[in-house]
Amino acid sequence: MRAGSVAVVVTEEIHLPSWDLYELSIPCTVFGKPQPDLADPWYDLRLCGMREPGSGAYEGAGLSLHTAYGLADLVDADTVIVPSVPDPCVDEGRPLPPELITALRRAHDAGARMISLCTGAFALAEAGILDGRRATAHWLHTAQLAARYPKVRVDDSVLYVDDGDVLTSAGLTAGLDLCLHLVRRDLGAHVANQLARRMVVPAHRTGGQAQFIEQPVPATDDRGLAPVLDWAREHLDRPLTVEDLARQAAMSPRTLYRRLQAATGVTPLQWLLNQRLRRAQGLLESTDLPISRIGELSGLGTANNLRHHFLKQIGVSPSDYRRAFPPA
């Protein structure tokens, strides 16, 4: 488990709307504030501007921003994050700065993990880093991304896509989901959960959750879902069904299905699978229990079934995942 260095690209223009400032602040918040009680060393955050360091501040949006690093510093980073690109590069097709594209290619070739938040995907796509890969961006921009870069397999329905060494997210809060996902990958579920708690945000939303759902926040009369979801988490080792959840919630299966999907963006069975995978990840990270026993405790069944879901949803086998989290 290792935090490493994180280089965040600051584009030439910072006459940014508030949401772009928000996306720039996300990696600064997650990776830039040391958390020595959770992991020491923490991440080494570097803001990398388009200009040479010391050549002046970026002015705009009522603020002044100095960066101590330039594009040349991307190549030495363990992780490179592009939070956004200027709106004219997305909406009007204005070319992205060639020096930025060259720096991103060099960083990728050097082995850096490449990340985009929202419209930052346009920069990774222009560099060819997303060719042949599944990727996402904010749903408002995915059609433009797909039309401009036909080699990219654009998925406009998910919060983020983890393709191993290249990860992309939708806009705004989905970028926070992805950054916390990176912390979970690097430092484990406990660290990510505690950091999320300090930030007063959900500890984990899976990348496959829908970007846009009809009712993102449960209505007042749906607050009764919380007890049944807590109950389900406590009984994941059982073979739960939609009927079991509905019975516990004292509602019909159809009503339970509709309300849970409206509140979470996924079906009840997908929600159960996500919770089982989270339980299995936590057990793999924190115990030396046999794989077969972890399959039983998480409700995923046999070791082969656990392995199947891990490979499909997470991209690695349970054994490989466990090796990334050696005991303290």
UniProtKB/TrEMBL annotation:
Transmembrane segments: none annotated. Residues 226-324 form the HTH araC/xylS-type domain. Gene3D superfamilies: 3.40.50.880, Homeodomain-like (1.10.10.60). SUPFAM superfamilies: Class I glutamine amidotransferase-like (SSF52317), Homeodomain-like (SSF46689). It comes from the Bacteria. The keyword Transcription regulation applies. Pfam families: DJ-1_PfpI, HTH_18. GO terms for molecular function: DNA-binding transcription factor activity; sequence-specific DNA binding. SMART domains: HTH_ARAC (SM00342). The keyword Nucleotide-binding does not apply. Keywords: DNA-binding, Transcription, Transcription regulation. PANTHER family: ARAC-FAMILY TRANSCRIPTIONAL REGULATOR, HTH-TYPE TRANSCRIPTIONAL REGULATOR RV1931C. This is Helix-turn-helix domain-containing protein.
